[in-house]
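Per your request, structure below.
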């Protein structure tokens, strides 16, 4: 399965305290596969506000510093809501492989948000792989995606 993002760019990743261990595992997993990673925090399991990591990940993706983003938090809702405040971002919440694929295929998502308190780590890594390797279908979906931005 081909990697569908720009392989020359790093992957931006962030998590609040609830997703810290998943983030650390995902970074190690990605680096083992030869990917570069931009770690935007948290850097421990100490309590942190999810916008403090979601905004830097979204900014890295929106500015082209990163190919795409990965965000973890307890429910993944907070990081998804925050990342989606950026006009160029389409952050999708995934809790199973089919959803991870669909947010790419139908929504052209550029950030995957994973609920660390509700999915097992092996599934989280599978979802990241599915997201990374699933192309956007375009067509009728492109028309819909083009209507998302407010500006």
């Amino acid at each position: 399965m081909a990697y569908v993002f720009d392989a020359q760019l790093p992957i931006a990743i962030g998590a609040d305290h609830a997703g810290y261990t998943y983030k650390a595992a995902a970074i190690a997993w990605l680096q083992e596969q030869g990917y570069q990673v931009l770690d935007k925090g948290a850097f421990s399991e100490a309590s942190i506000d999810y916008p403090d990591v979601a905004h830097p990940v979204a900014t890295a993706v929106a500015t082209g510093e990163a190919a795409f983003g990965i965000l973890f938090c307890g429910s993944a809702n907070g990081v998804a809501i925050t990342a989606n405040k950026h006009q160029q971002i389409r952050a999708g919440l995934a809790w199973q492989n089919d959803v991870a694929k669909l947010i790419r295929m139908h929504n052209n998502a550029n950030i995957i948000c994973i609920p660390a308190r509700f999915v097992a780590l092996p599934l989280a890594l599978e979802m990241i792989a599915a997201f990374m390797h699933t192309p956007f279908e375009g067509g009728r979906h492109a028309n819909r995606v083009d209507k998302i931005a407010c500006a």
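The helical segments are 20-32, 51-62, 77-83, 97-105, 121-133, 140-146.

Regards,
D.
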